[in-house]
Amino acid sequence: MAHAPGMHSLEFKLPDLGEGLTEAEIVRWLVEVGDLVAIDQPVVEVETAKAMVEVPCPYGGVVTARFGEEGTELPVGAPLITVAVGEKPAAGTGGTGTEGSGNVLVGYGTSEAPARRRRVRQERPLSGASATGGQSGAGAANGRAAATAAPVNAQATGAAAAVDGQSGGLATEDGPVPVISPLVRRLARQNGLDLRELTGSGPDGLILRADVEYALRAAGQGATAAPAAEPHPRVPQAPSPVPASASPATAVPAEIRTPLKGIRGAVADKLARSRREIPDATCWVDADATELMRARTAMNAAGGPKISLLALLARICTAALARFPELNSTVDAEAREVVRFGHVHLGFAAQTDRGLVVPVVRDAHARDAESLTAEFARLTEAGRTGTLTPGELTGGTFTLNNYGVFGVDGSTPIINHPEAAMLGVGRIVPKPWVHEGELAVRQVVQLSLTFDHRVCDGGVAGGFLRYVADCVEQPAVLLRTL
Question: Catalytic residue positions?
Answer without folding.
Answer: 453, 457
